[in-house]
Request: fold
Amino acid sequence: MNFSSNDYLGLASSDELKDAYQTGISLFGVGSGASPLVTGYSAQHESLKSELTEWLGFEDALFFSSGFSANQAVLFSLMHKGDLLLQDRLNHASLMEAGSLCDADMRRFRHNDLKHLQSLIKSNVPVLAVTESVFSMDGDQSDVDEFLAVCGASGTMSMIDDAHGVGVIGKDGAGVSGISQYKPDILIVTFGKAFGLNGAAVLCSKDLANYLTQFARHYIYSTAFSAAHAYALSKALNMIKTQHWRRDKLNELASVYDESLGALSAHVTTATPIKPWILGETSKVQALCHRLKQKGIWTTAIRPPTVPDGSARLRITLSASHQRSDVLALASQLKRFTEES
Ligand SMILES: Cc1ncc(COP(=O)(O)O)c(C=O)c1O
Reply:
């Protein structure tokens, strides 16, 4: 039983998606053979782009092989000397690393502290502010409306990484686009989590997409994902939009998890399938991980520096592919370990 993957909706192993991928491979082969600007971009990529932009309400989208490269491509292409980049201090490593390496000045605002963000914005330089919809290690959410209001009022360009939100939160799983009437200038969607596959998209205006097509080196000089992959992603998108039972099941499993474990101090309540189990000491988390493995439960210890010192944890994640009995089995082991330690 895997309790640490990001396959929130259980699509990665669904027969329906496997069949679609196999059909895609039979029709289009297994590789794209080139970067998108050479011959790697197919009619299947174009269909996927139309479906995605229509669903999430953006003019254009560019595809990347991973969320890591999409985030880096955007920051390296847009941020120049003299610009100001403001990031939530818990943003993903791909954003933080690109922020430190690019030519702009980077400042980090306190986690989800939009007053702090506001105080760092300057009016005399171009500013890009970046946050995530759902934070991957804590499973908490940002206040998207408020973030976009702060950016809008100050003329700050906004970017939201929706890696852990799309498919899971918002109306019909539309992530940020399903919870807010406002849109960021740039939305990052990754396909390695709720979509059950891999790859990513940058959604933005036509002008920005044109600019990135000219300057984003991760886009220009990297092999596109295959047409078969794009075909499977279209199927995944359709499943996300229409198979509401997957999100309903996630909610039911989350209730079982919270009811079973809510009274224990390591438990953290979240409104997402990410359930941190915070023990603090790395050695304790490793011992728990080992115990769970012996019981057939697969989790991974998350340690500093990925999370702050003294907050080593299991990053437990629920999936629509779990059964109620799986969650109860996990809960029973977590309770026993707590009683014994
Ligand atoms: C918030 C966030 N953004 C981006 C990424 C990178 O995405 P990918 O795994 O597609 O490279 C991750 C991966 O865990 C993530 O959590």
